[in-house]
Amino acid sequence: MFDIDFVIDEAGFQFSKLGPSDIEDALTNFCLLLDAVEQPVAKWSAIWQIPSVGDQILADLLFSEGYIDRDLGLLVGASLDRLPDWDETAEVAPLMNLSCDGVDLSMAPSLALCGLVRANGGRLGALSTPASQRSGIVWLRLPEEADPVDVDVISAVADISVYWRRVACDDKFTESQVASLAKSMFPNCVFAAGFFGQFDRLVGSYLNLLPDVLRHLAALSDHAPEVWRIRSQNHERIVEMASRAKVECSPEGPRTHRNVAAMNRRRFEFAGEHVLCEWHTKLEPHRNRIHFAVEGERVYIGCMIEHFPT
Q1: pLDDT at 66 over 60
Q2: Considering the entire predicted model, what is its pTM?
Q3: CA torsion, points 129, 134, 137, 138, in degrees to nearest 10?
Q4: CA–CA dist 115, 33 (Å, integer)
């Protein structure tokens, strides 16, 4: 329906219950969020006119001196101004009124657009700030729709990866779709070339394997760098990953270490450098492995395979 993946939630800029310091925190977090999103984003053209704080509209808050830090206001204003206006190309007129999680909203055209797209089988995520008091899945009821629809509101950088992982599973993304969004889903991971084309090296059908593969990659991206930083012993890392991330993983054993050829099979190229990925998560106790290595804040993902010979 649109060549965009996200819109800006106007309610995120209605700061009636916040003071200047909290507004500045919300706007700073929004800038970080907008910078972290790599997919196309659009705004409602009249977002500048929404009531923001007191008797000020958003344009006044961002571009007038006195209430918030001027440089921050100008930065947010410039960031919003660079975004295209979805209502210039949309084939539907903006809807103002809807119900969100049972609460009536009187000025939420971008959320309404998300609901309309969802009702027609598509998806749009809504980027917001903590001021909206909404995050994660919300349920919208539109004036002319009989059933409520689920829409994702994203108000923190960490929410981006959670959103795409869930959508990839729910919408049954293809290997190429997952590969194209890998950086957004797993920001701390670096993948060897061709990794997402290796599902056929595992035992099981692609759609049955996809949720577990995404869950294991999420565990590595979200937890492995910190676990490796605070735990230096292999047995400690094994226990910590099982406790925190709910995945079983381990390095290779002494027998494999003595086999030079076997160890070389576990080396993978990343940007011209070869990294030994002997650690592996176990999708099942006896088969289906994801091989990886942790170096600082990066997790190098080498391959997925039923089982390497030892």
Answers
A1: yes
A2: 0.91
A3: -130
A4: 22
